[in-house]
Amino acid sequence: MSSILIKNATLVNEGVQFNADVFINNGFIEKIDSSINRPGDIEINAEGKYLLPGCIDDQVHFREPGLTHKANIASESAAAVAGGITSFMEMPNTVPNTLTQALLEEKYQTASRNSFANYSFFMGAGNDNLAEVLKTNPKDVCGVKVFMGSSTGNMLVDNEKTLEGIFSKVPMLVATHCEDEATIRHNLELFKAKYGEEGLTAEMHPLIRNAEACYISSSKAVELAKKHNTRLHILHISTGVETQLFDNTIPLKDKKITAEACVHHLWFSDKDYASKGNYIKWNPAVKTEADRSQIFEALLNDRIDVIATDHAPHTIEEKGQAYSKAPSGGPLVQHALTAMLEFYHQGKISLEKIVEKMAHNVAICFQIEKRGFIREGYWADLTLLDLNSPWTVSKQNILYKCGWSPFEGQEFKSKVTHTIVSGKLVYNNGELDHHQKGQRLMFERN
Q1: Are 163 and 122 in contact (CB under 8 A)?
Q2: What is the crossing angle of helices 181-195 and 211-228, to 10°?
Q3: Is the per-residue pLDDT at 151 higher than 70?
Q4: What are 218-264's pLDDT values in tens digits?
Q5: How many CA atoms, within 13 angstroms, populate the side-chain half-sphere of residue 67?
Q6: Nearest alpha carbon to residue 339 among 33, 133, 165, 84
Q7: Where is 53: in which H helix or E strand?
Q8: Where is the Amidohydrolase-related domain (predicted)?
Q9: Are strands 411-412 and 415-421 parallel, antiparallel or unpaired?
Q10: What does the angle CA 304 – CA 265 – CA 68 come to, to the nearest 5 degrees?
């Protein structure tokens, strides 16, 4: 394994910025100092650039196995690394659904061969596999995923007794998709009765999958978690009202209930459906400008703990269907960090806060072993940025297998120039080293 010397970087880490050199050896950060004169096998002059801990994305759908016409672990991890994401946690609604330990292990084996980024996979909870869920090893699996509301795939957990069992017995982190299915079905029937199925449009999506549906389900999850002292993590908060369910008065390491915001809920609002249509159709839905601003506020005041992508690609053909047939979800890993950096350029968030929400806090939240920080003795997961290198998202520079992005035509001011994964230079000024692979994430849990 090559050693790497990074010279003259501006490090953004643990709430401060400072100039330093970083020496990487055998996968780990060996030395951080104002001046390191030891030669590296690879040397990077980082003068004028910013060195951040690699982003950790706790919610992606890479579509392998079973849906590889949309994406696969190799293609999407390449896009992630190009976007400064060095580790991901992938969801169980692949085909077949990841509802057994054997299917879970198959994913790990695939990733060990094909993933450019570090990886972990959620074990899926269904209505009838609790015994299998309880076999999950908390030291080498990120968590257990529960769909408390339907999404892509058939993993809705709607049985009260099953939910009680999961929340009372699972000893590790339980991550939930929270939308109330009964409310959504009721709303959908009302809209169909008024407009007909052919008359439904993307603009109606946040009215069908509305704030009430989200709050009913999220508040139910919080209630169950408090009742059973469950380690609960609620994914993709999309409404302002839900942010009040979360606490910002205690340190993250002591929280039993945490929450995530996604880039698309921070960037888009319901006004964008007119131009973007199904390309911003996600579950939960992108909602109002007021919701967006309240989610952003909750992110800044620490009611919301982490930023993720919910990267969930579909083909252009699938997205181009009528609203009622077009699947929900879109690709985001290549553009998440640069999108957040636009908010930095606009004065809405600091670099330190972006690093906290996209790296430090994810590592704390999931108790990831030796990652998420620029520290001596930690794995070298790093991304180097040029904050003044404008570029425009186009089909020519998109790495997603699906070949499109909701950000097409958007100019970003910042560019990822280098990404180091577990001490290996995987991405270098637009070039991916196809020989390098990521590592399985491990967790510091009892």
Answers
A1: no
A2: 170
A3: no
A4: 999 999 999 999 999 999 999 999 999 999 999 999 999 999 999 99
A5: 22
A6: 84
A7: strand 50-53
A8: 50-426
A9: unpaired
A10: 110
In the three-class reduction of DSSP (H, G, I as helix; E, B as strand; rest coil), residue 199 is classed as helix
Of the candidates 340, 359, 360, the one whose C-alpha atom is nearest the C-alpha of residue 350 is 340
Report which DSSP code applies to 202: G
Sequence-ordered strand ranges (E) for 94-235 = 118-121, 123-124, 144-148, 174-178, 232-234
Q: Do residues 174 and 162 touch, judged by C-beta distance below 8 A? A: no
* Average pLDDT of the segment spanning 7-16: 98
Rounded-to-integer distance, Cα 181 and Cα 186, Å: 9
Contact between 66 and 97 under an 8 Å Cβ cutoff? The reply is no
What whole-number distance in Å separates Cα of residue 337 and Cα of residue 354? 8
Work out the percent of the chain whose per-residue pLDDT is above 70. Answer: 99
261 is in which domain, residue-wise? 66-366
Cβ atoms 287, 211 nearer than 8 A: yes
Number of separate domains in the chain = 1
| Two tokens, residue 283 | 């579950």
Burial 396-420 (b: 16+ CB within 10 A, else e): eebbbbbebbbbeebebbbbbbbbb
Q: Which residues is 87 bridged to in the sheet?
A: 56, 118
Q: Model pTM? A: 0.97
Q: What is the rounded CA–CA span in Å between residue 260 and residue 272?
A: 22
Q: What CATH number did the domain enclosing 317 receive?
A: 3.20.20.140
In a domain, 417, yes or no: no
Structural domain includes residue 110? yes
Question: Interior CA angle at 209 toward 208 and 215, to 5°?
Answer: 130
Which DSSP string do the residues of 25-45 spell out, in sequence order?
ETTEEEEEES---S--SEEEE
Contacts of 394 (CB under 8 A, 6+ apart): 408, 409
Residue 240 lies in a domain: yes
Query: Would you say residue 99 lies in a domain?
Result: yes
Given pLDDT bands bounded at 50, 70 and 90, which one contains residue 150? low
Q: Which residues pair with 42 in a beta bridge?
A: 4
Q: What is the mean pLDDT of the chain?
A: 97
Structure tokens at 127: 């209505």
102 Cβ partners below 8 Å, 6+ apart? none
Q: pLDDT tens-digit profile of 22-60? A: 999 999 999 999 999 999 999 999 999 999 999 999 999
Provide the 3-class DSSP secondary structure of residue 206.
helix
